[in-house]
Queue: 3 jobs
Job 1
Amino acid sequence: MAQRLVPILRSLLLCLCLGLWLPQSAARAAQLTAALEQFSTALSHAVPAAQVPLQTLQQLDVALLKPESMYPQFQSWSLADLTVLYQLDKRCVNNASLPASVLPFVRALCQQERPSAAWFRANPIYPLGGSSAWHYILRHPDATAALRSSLHVRERPDDLGGVGTLSDNNLDALLGGQQWLLQKGELWHLSRQQWQRYDAQVWQPLANQAGIKLVNAGGRCDLRLGALCANASEGYRDLWRWLFALLTVFAAVGLAWMGWQRRRLRERQRFITQMLTHELRTPIAQLSNVVEHFRRDFDRLPEGAQLNFVALANTLQRMRQMAETSKHYLIAEHQREALETPTQVLLSEWLDHLCADRDGLTYCLAEDMTVGVALYWSSLCLTNLLDNAFRHGVPPVRLTVRKSKTQLLFQVSDGGTMSKNPLLNARRLRWSDSSLGLGLTIVQRVSHRLNGRLTFSPSPTTFTLELPCDAG
């Protein structure tokens, strides 16, 4: 009963967790969205440290905003051209032999007359990285004011609200249309067509009042805001953490209780089986003496009494088999593992011992050899198969033993023509009055434990037991 309740309890706990988590998760998301709106409204009334209109940034050439524009342009220029430019950097050489692609930049940046604004718009980025205007200003510092609008944002960090101080990831996020940025404690927010920058001492108190925390993405994220995450304050989540912790404790205690109940049930079943096995020994021994007494006087018994004696002897044999089989359930786990240790045995001697008292059994050994097998369990399986064949089969009974690469194959067949596979019903029959299901269930369980298998084939009725073995 306890074993059946374990999966039911697990399913109920799972349903309870989902029932609590799913509605509350949706409620938390809605409350967090409302808290974010409250924070945005409060932030719009605060005074920013700096701001820049979005239109001003949109009027810039995109290359003057991209962080990769500050590095050599290997995608657009060959290494040879970049090498020539690097060698001539800060030196004006009027050499007609320069590559045609490099010569316009050398002439434009080295001439005393400033190139036109159209030239700087057509060539905003210098091949070695940075803006063309910046490289011209290095040679002609007096042109700084005139070319300031043609500089990359990184080359004028104090302009445009400090956009040039943003990291590469934040600049990419800005170009990607994000509305929230966070860098070194400063919060950037796009609101009313303005990029506004707020110091930590301004925006963090407002966020605390709204019950949220803004952090860069990469860890816990309750609500994604592009490159940022808006998380509920810890105090808001503590209640649910305690509830889930309490639920986990209850689940652990429930599972532990169910496990304890299962263990008690197993111990009780083991005790009952042990007691019954012990109590059966005395009547079996007494019946053995009676049967032996009648066996000596068998010829003097009436014909009807002789038939009853045969039935009594068969019943006694079944009782002995049942008492022997019960030992399988009484062996402790550590003893089972010890009995699974392979034992080196000569096949012919082992089979002669198992088949010594079975009249009418023919066994065929393909090749005699020494092999390592789990002797106790293998003997138990083979004994059960032979008993089933003699008790439920049709003579003659035949045992064929052969060895493959790593398996010992035992084929127990009789003259019957059973068409329905009894292995499919072995689990259902094991509690019935028929010992066929009980014996096959034992063989199936043991063979599975030993990494073997039991199969059935009809006409004639044949059970094939495959068990692992070690070559001697």
Note: The longest helix spans residues 234-296.
Job 2
Amino acid sequence: MGEAQEVGEHTLKRSLGPVNLVALGIGAIIGAGLFVRTADAIAQRAGPSVVLAFILAGVGCAFAGLCYAEFASMIPVAGSAYTYSYATMGEFVGWIIGWDLVLEYAVGAATVAIAWSQYANRVLGWFSLAVPYQWSHSPFEHQGGVHGIMNIPAVFILLLLTLLLIRGTKESAFVNGIIVVIKVAVVLLVICIGWGFINPANHTPLIPAATMYTPPHDFPHAYGGIMGILGAAGIVFFAYIGFDAVSTAAQEAKNPARTMPIGILGSLVICTVLYVLFSYVLSGLATVEDFRTQGKEASVAFAISTYMPGYEWLSKSVTVAILAGFSSVILVMLLGQSRVFYSMSRDGLVPKVFSDVHPRFRTPYKSNMLFFVFTGVFAAFIPEEIVGDMTSIGTLFAFILVCAGVWILRVRSPELERAFRVPAAPVVCTLGIIICGAMIYGLGWPTWLRLIVWLLIGFIFYFGYGKSHSHINAPPPEMPEGIKLSK
């Protein structure tokens, strides 16, 4: 556990307590998922049965969260699912999951940044300061004869949050804590006030009949029935990356053996309850057709403005909360991405530049800037497609490997000290794998194909660089004694 105990100029500063970690998780979970993916799941997959989809996704997260908690308390270092997979299933599987996490964090951050720019422009429009269309959209988008050039607001928020992360995680956690309070307050207002405006007809039937639905610019897929619920659960899994991101900050946590399980499971329980209540209210306010035609991002504010007369102020508050929510999601995604590549760089699988620590701030500043360039190019010049499914499948894939890893490590190294142990591990791990696998199945073949293509690109990088530069013969000091690594 050498790296976990290191303190010095070239290590990450331990500054995060359990409250910081729970806030970090809530900051990631309540944001793009709750305010956007909920409406998307209602419109495209499940209708009012999105409530059941959130429960299913929450149960799957609970099993995976328990596995994450055991790993995080046993291997309390930066890296999340990458470190856990590397420790239990060898270098090659570790590389696969580390590369997969780029989808979860970097691609997800860029996508949310594009959505952030739309909401920022909405708020600026209240003061007649909206950014012109061509400077807030990609070259592939056009409206009324005007073509986009680049999305400047999206690049701006990515740069601002990257600089905040370089300055230091403690400062980032403080800002994130303020944002979390604002978002949770608005969510509770929507639940409490909106409950009185629910139209029971919108919840009848709770589970729509199984049919096929073809969204614009996408392939036909199941709507309603069991497959609709599975697909919706896969979609809203985008919202559950929060506790996953918490585990990437293990190297910066005080007393990680105690605080990591609290941070992971605490944020998961709080947010699952809020998700179920919020989705019940939202699906009861407006019709499925409203969510299909009014735009996924604007649908929450639209539902309040249209079906809750006298509460326009709440609609605007939700817009501001969504803006703050997107900001905190991007923040945690960028944090998680740089920390995963920090660990991969320490293991030799990616160049050393990703593990260079700032001499003053002790943060991986070069990694932060490189990923700003990557996400900035994506956000500036690529239109906002439905890449949330890619982020979901990346997250689910990571969860499956972590659940398998806990079981494997229990068999291979039962003597290792575990500050937190998964109860009934074989049952919990098996159910976690089955539920996450079912949600991957519900996402459909186009999403499976995109994941396979992304992994093939990763194999080229691995066999072209990582395999020959790996430190496999001298495993990193964070691995507990007794774990045998293999290629």
Note: The chain has a mean pLDDT of 80.
Job 3
Amino acid sequence: MTDPATETIDKWEACKLVEKAAGSLGIRPRALTVLKAVVSFHEGNSIDKNSVVWAPNKKLLGRCNGISAPTLVIRPH
């Protein structure tokens, strides 16, 4: 049995899995675009449950395929 604390997954495979389940999870296409942009800042190919990415907003916008800055603002639901 593997230890969940040390399990890793390829970051792009993780994005594909999220994209595949997006409809069932209620994830919108723009959110997927932002996810991929954020993941692109993570160094290396593998991520785990403790992975953290710090992406400057200006650079993040450049990788979001034309999404506007206000779209990136987190709004309370």
Note: The beta strands are 9-10, 46-47.
